[in-house]
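cron nightly-structures :: item 1 of 1
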Amino acid sequence: MSVTQLIAGANCPVPHEKLQVEVLLSPAQVNGIEVDISAFALTTTGKVRGDDDMVFYGQPSPGNGSVVFLTNSAGQAEFNVDLPNLVQATEKVAFTATIHENRANFGVFSNLQVTVKNAAG
């Protein structure tokens, strides 16, 4: 299996299939700071169409279930993304992280890693 490493802001193609996406922040725990990791199905305008396009711990499988929130722990979250079954108006899926109650900034984390792999692998 080959691994592609990207610099911040870079892009690369992914296969049009079922994928598993893992988002990791490190260090995983920083003075009790809680980080919420979410996914958003975005249209060509870069916006969600509504609640069904927002996937997070409180709404793990909205809409048609093509993007599903699987697990969440300190500084880590996993999602299943079924690209062939995304709603047709979806241009891209964005993964975001927010710091609960804005208690710090992301400078306290030394690393962000996003791993995309075939859901069967």
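cron nightly-structures :: done
The longest strand covers residues 18-26.
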